[in-house]
Each structure stands twice: as structure tokens, then as C-alpha cells.
Amino acid sequence: MKTLSRTRAVMVVITLILLLSGPGIIFAGGTGEQEAKQKTEEEHIHLVFWGGLPPENGPQELVDRYNELNPNVTVEYVRYVNNDQGNVRLDTALMAGEQIDVFTSYGHPRREQRVSAGMAADITDLLKEQGVDLIRDFGPGARPNIVDGRIYSVPTIVLVRFLAVNKDMFDQAGIPLPTEWTLDEFIDVARRLTHGEGAEKVYGIIGDYNTNINLFLENKHGTDPWLNKDGDASLWTKESDFRRAYQMFYNMMYRDKSMMAWEDVLSQRLTDSAALAAAFFNGRSAMMQTGSYMLRNIKDPVQYPRGFKVGFVPFPRVDENQSQYIAPVEPHDDMMVNPRSKYKEEAVRFIVWYAKEGFDPMIRYGRLPLYQEYDKDHVAAVLAEGAEELVDPESFAANVIGVVGDTIIEPRSVPDRNVLDRIFRDESEAYYLKMIDLDTLLNRLQKQFDEVLASEK
Amino acid sequence: MNTSGFMAAAVNPGRRFSRRRTAGQTLSGLAFIGPNFILMIVFWLFPVVFAFVLSFTNWDLLSGLGGIEFIGFDNYRSLPGDDKFLRSLLNNLYFTAAVVPLTVILGLAAAVIIHEHVWGKKVFRLVFFLPYISNIVAVSIVWSLLYRHYGPIANFLRVIGIEHPPSFLADMKWALPAIIAMSVWMQIGYACLIYSAGLQGISKDLYEAAEIDGINRWKRLTLITIPLLRPTTFFIVITSLITSFQVFAQVQVMTDGGPAGSTSVLVFYIYQNAFRFYRFGYASAIAVVLFVIIFLITLIQWIYQKRLASDY
Questions:
Q1: Is the CB of residue A315 less than 8 Å from the CB of residue A219?
Q2: What is the least distance, in Å, from the CA of A318 to any CA of chain B?
């Protein structure tokens, strides 16, 4: 009996020790390990860089090249998928203190959110040390990256929006690729390019969730056309162009039938850009609303086989005589440094090299560098590599490489943008599905947007 | 010699020696369940309590734990005025009201038919059960293909003479029923399996006696099988009620809450608020409401089960 209880006592003690130290292991283990690692790697710096592109679409090659040039640094590229879940993963990893030194934010809403939450380091001085003048080097489009005189992020690309078109269909219909046109001409061209019936039907254009009326109004009204000057109320019922644009899509869907009816878009799941691209390359539509992010698919005839050349067409002007034409060009892909990074200086050095010198591998996959000194001809040459047979060179040069406008899109900061986006998407959908009429739609948008905007003040 | 502590304590409750041993045993018992307990605290209890606390804040995740700001009952107060919340709740009730009865009826029918057939019982039971154990995301993707405008279901309807079949998931009136149909199909196997076990517990004597009395099949079902399966039915109803309030994956994969919000349900709305809008406080408040609903269902179960136990 005695021996038995002694064994038991020993077991109890061991288990208790394990138990008590358990949480310690869980919570303290990480840092101890890191400290040890850091000591052995004093001379060798290990940077972790999180980005949203697949490694094989440029980032891995870029990082490898940097590592080669800098033997004392190893940059490790980690891909997160740039969707809701992926961004939550990045945000929680940043919060939990996982080693992330550099990361890319996509789109100004996410950038603003992270900057205001203190998830991006102030890199003003480090950039100055590297000889960077943000506006001189990256153009006036980088202005929103400066918050109260301090810099928290470096924009690296320009996102160019355009309509990709099936050049053969235009040729067959005897329509020259438009270089400057209006919404009315757009409606007409879409109608003329539509033919066939049922599953064989070819549409002038197919729209997905990203093909929304705002994109067609931006060249006159600027970004977020629905937002008033002060940013505290919306203009849905006040600006007649919204009514016009909604009516345009609706008529194209149901009167001209030159745009796929929304019910069919949903039922065929053409709601995201990948599915839309597949339909376009299959010759199911003559035009597709897209942007430079699609270039990597346009240059990939293996995954997206097609029998035609892709042409590029600018967004139609809202009015023939509008006072200015705002080019659909937007700085994008903001590089940020984690405030908890131990190697901020190294991180900034990497970002500067990335944006100014090392960008070639990214260009090949359709990311156009924002850096002002980047040689335009060089960019065009790298982009055109392997695309000679796939794109129409003239329209490519005019509407992708050398877009001109009186000004470019300057992003505005809007609180709760995700909430507003969802309201806009749901209500527009109800209208396209004929569940509500146009007046109800505009009134509902006005009311709900104003509520959200007011609640944030 | 090897009388276990429990027995020893029970036999000799008064002796000091055994009391000491009991203390030691309590300790060793605790030590054994300890690791499990700690994991439960970390991964279950803490999130539950944290979510409850969060429901009184306007936390947005990004601002970190330091950014938690208490706003009292504001989240709860804005719930009744939130059309999208009410719509999600209504959709959820609609979903539950359709899925639970259908699952029970079809599950019972399947179980009875399989039970009365002499051959292939196991095969059929497995066939019905397969959807239940299949990955829900994969099943949802397959069903969205079936529901397409030119998909098999619509084409079948065209063949039998319906010229314009609904485009199920793309139609605000049909999207939720379409998801319900698929969910019922998934759940039947579960109900069928439990009912099969229940059926085996019913004494054959009763059926033999009924047969001698010349009672027909239908009456046998309504007078013997269904009443004696009452505890089983009750169990299935409760568990399906609870799972039906937690429906999420189908909606997320098949419609993303659309078209135009017509298939939004509670958990989907929680997900949307938390992970798309970063409104973790508000999402937690809805989660607490969901908890209360499920807790009420469980409460009914407890009370009713006690009554059942005293009945038999």
C-alpha cells in the first residue's frame, strides 16, 4: 500500500509541475526561443515579408534577387490571400506579435484602417535617411500616404482601370477600338456586338460585382462619386448621374439585352473577376471591365486559352463636354513596416529597393511601378514580353502604359467603407433583380449611407 | 489490498487515514483532468467569456486589447432597429421551421422503410448517412452546380414541361428554399441513423400482437412506432433545432448571403460584422442573442427530458 501511494504521490507531483509550467511554456516559450535565435543571428538579419500575390507571380524572384545582393539579409516571403479571411489572418498575426517586418496592404481603406490603429510604423525619418522624398519619387498620388506630416506607408504601383475587349469581335463588326468615347456610344457599341441566343449568346459586356456604376462615373466625379464634399452625407438622390447610370445598366440588361441579366450572372457564378475573365476569354462577351491586375491573366494563354487578341479601351466619358477627365489610375499596394519589427531600418531599406530598383519581376505580372523615375519604355518592354501575340500593341500602349487624363484618382478616406460597400452591393442587386424600382433603390441608398456616415461623426 | 480509494472511502468513511488518502486522490484526479481542463479554459471558456465582455464594447480588432472601449448596452439597443439583423433572424426562423420538421419526417420515413426491408439495411443506411459526414463546403459547391441556370435540376424541370424554371440561388424568392432543400438532404441521414437505433429498441412483441389483432401497417406506425419513438424524436428535434440556428457554411459558400441579403442568417451576419466590417463588439452582441436562443431550446429540453424520465 505504501509503495502504491508513493508512486501515486510522485505522479501527482510530476503532473502538477507539468501543469503549472504548462501555461508558462505556452505563453513564454516563444520569446525565449526568439531571443536565442536573435543572438545567433546577430550578423545575419532575417526579415519576414507578407504580401498578397502568389510567390510565383513576381515576389519570390524579387526576394531571391534581394537576398543575393545582400548576403547579410534573408527576406522570407509569406503569402496571405488578399480576401476577408486573409486580411484577418494578417491583422491577428500582427496583433499577436508574430514576426512580420514588412507587409503590403491593398487598397486605401485597409491602409487607413491599419495606420489609424497603429499597426504601421512611422517611417518618415528612415525614408529620409534613404534619400526618399515621397511626393517627388512617387508623385502627387502618394499624398494620402502622409498623415499629419508623417509617413506610414509607401505606395508601390499604379492600378490602371480599363475595358479589355475582344479585338476580333470589334474587327468583325467593323468597329474601330474607341480611343475617346461617351456612355451613349458605349451603349450603342455594346448593342452592336451582341448576337446569338441561349448558351451560345455573345454579350456586349458581362458585369460582375466589381463592374459597378461608380466606376463609370469616376472619370467625371472623381473617386467615390456618391460622397459629398465634406464626406458626411451621400448624393444618391441629389446627383442625377446615378439615376442615369443605373438606368443604363438596367436597359442594357433588359431592353437591349447587351449586358448579361443579373440573374444569369448570379446563377452562372460570374460574380468575381476570375470567373468573369474565364467567360471573356471563352468569347462570351466582347468587353470586360477590369484593370492592370488582369494583365497577368491576359498574358497567360495556358490557363486562359483564347483565339483572339485583347484590345484596351478607356472608360467612356460620362458627358461629351465634361469639364475634366479624371484618369482611372490609382496608387496602390502600400508597403508598411510592423511597429514591433526589430529591424525597421533594414525593412525600410528593403522597401525602397523594392519600389525603386527591384520591381522588374513584378512588372512582368502586370504590376506597374509607381516610382516616377522608372523608365516608361523599359516598363512597356518588360510588360510586352511574351504578350506580342496576345494583345493589340497600340491600344495597350495608349490605355495601359500611357494613360492620360487631366488628373488621377485621389482616394478619399471613408469610415466603415466595408459596410457601405455591402449596402451598395445588396441594394443594387435587388434593383437588377427587379425586386425594387429605381426610386426605391436611390432612396434606400441615400438613407442607409447617410445613417452610416452620420454614426461615424 | 487493491480496493480502490473510492471503495475504501465508502467503506471506512470515519478513519483519518482514508481521509488523507481521499485528499490525495482528489489531487491526483485533478492532476489527471488538469491538462484537458486548461485547454478547455484557453480554447473554450476564455473565448466565451471574452465574447460576452466584447458585446459591451465597440472593439474593432485592429486597435488591439488596449483599444477596448466599453459602451454599455448600446450594441443590444441597436439590434431591434437593425433591419439586416431582423431579416437574418427571420430567415433563420424560416430555415429552422422548414428544416427541422422535414428532417424529422423524412428521416423517420427512411428509417422505417429501411427497417422493414429485409435486405441491404446497412447499405441503405450508409447511403443516407454519407451526406451527413461529407465535407459541407464540397457538398455546397456541388449543389450550387446542380442549381445552375442550365444545371441538371433546371434542365430536368424543362424536360418535364416547366418552361422557365427558377434560377434557384440567383432568385431572391428561391435562394433560401434551395439552401433548405440541400440542408435537409444532408440532415436526413443523421435522423435516419438515430431513428434506426430507436426502432431496434421497440419490442417485436408489440408488432406481433398488432398483427394478430389485424391492425394495418399505417396504424401500426401511428399507434406503436411513433409514440414509442417519442424520446428519439424529441432528441432529434432538439439537436436539429440547435444546428439549424448555427447554419453558416452553406450560406457562405452558395450565396454569400445574397442575392441582395435574402439568405443572410444569424451566424452569417455575425461573421459579416466581425470579419468583414471589423465590428467585433456588435458581432459579439448578436452571438450572445444566438446563445440565449440556443440556451432556451436546451432549457426546454432539460425540463421535458426530466418529465420523460419520470414517465417511463
A1: yes
A2: 27
Judge whether A42-157+331-384 and A160-328+395-455 match in fold: yes
Report the gap between the CA of B148 and the closest CA in chain A (Å): 5
Per-residue pLDDT of chain A (457 residues; tens, 9 = 90+): 444 455 555 555 555 454 444 443 444 444 444 554 554 545 789 999 999 999 998 999 999 999 999 999 999 999 999 988 899 899 989 988 899 999 999 988 889 889 988 899 999 999 999 999 999 999 888 888 998 999 999 999 999 999 999 999 999 999 999 999 999 999 999 999 999 987 789 999 998 888 899 999 999 998 889 999 888 899 999 999 999 999 999 999 999 999 999 998 988 888 888 889 999 999 999 999 999 989 988 988 898 999 999 999 999 999 988 888 898 888 899 999 999 999 999 999 999 999 999 999 999 888 999 998 888 888 888 888 888 889 998 898 888 887 776 777 777 778 788 899 999 999 999 999 999 999 999 999 999 999 999 886 5
Residue A77: count other Cβ atoms within 10 Å of its Cβ. Answer: 19
Cell of B74: 448600446
For residue A311, the surrounding DSSP H or E stretch is strand A310-313
The CATH code of the domain at A160-328+395-455 is 3.40.190.10
The distance of Cα A354 from the centroid of its chain, to the nearest Å, equals 18
Domain segments of chain A as ranges:
42-157+331-384, 160-328+395-455
Nearest to A9 among B24, B168, B170 (CB): B24
Which domains, and CATH codes, for chain B? Answer: 5-54 (no CATH), 80-311 (1.10.3720.10)
Residues of chain B in Cβ contact (below 8 Å) with chain A: 1, 21, 24, 27-28, 31-32, 34-35, 38, 42, 60-64, 67, 144, 147-150, 167-172, 258-261, 272, 275-278
Q: Which residues of B touch A266 (CB under 8 A)?
A: 167, 169-170, 258-259
Interface contact A88-B261, CB threshold 8 A: no
The SS3 assignment for A445 reads: helix
What are the DSSP calls for chain B, one per residue?
----HHHHHHH-TT-HHHHHHHHHHHHHHHHHHHHHHHHHIIIIIHHHHHHHHHTTB---STT-GGG--B-TTHHHHHSTT-HHHHHHHHHHHHHHHHHHHHHHHHHHHHHHHHHH-SS-HHHHHHHHHHHHHS-HHHHHHHHHHHTSTTSHHHHHHHHTT-SS---GGGSTTTHHHHHHHHHHHHHHHHHHHHHHHHHHTS-HHHHHHHHHTT--HHHHIIIIIHHHTHHHHHHHHHHHHHHHHT--HHHHHHTTT-STTTT--HHHHHHIIIIIT--HHHHHHHHHHHHHHHHHHHHHHHHHHHHHHHH-
Cα dihedral sign, B267-B269-B274-B275: positive
From chain B, pick out residues whose CB is under 8 angstroms from the CB of A418.
276-278
Distance CA A62, CA A75 (A): 10
Residue A182 is classified by DSSP as B
As a whole number of angstroms, the distance between CA B118 and CA B201 comes to 17
Question: Closest by alpha carbon to B308, among B198, B229, B226?
Answer: B229
Helices (H), A77-152: 84-96, 108-116, 124-129, 134-138
Fold of A42-157+331-384: D-Maltodextrin-Binding Protein; domain 2 (3.40.190)
- Count CB neighbours of B10 within 10 A: 11
Q: Which residues of B touch A433 (CB under 8 A)?
A: 170-172, 259-260
Q: Which of A267, A270, A420 to mutate to test the interface with B (most CBs of B within 10 A)?
A: A267
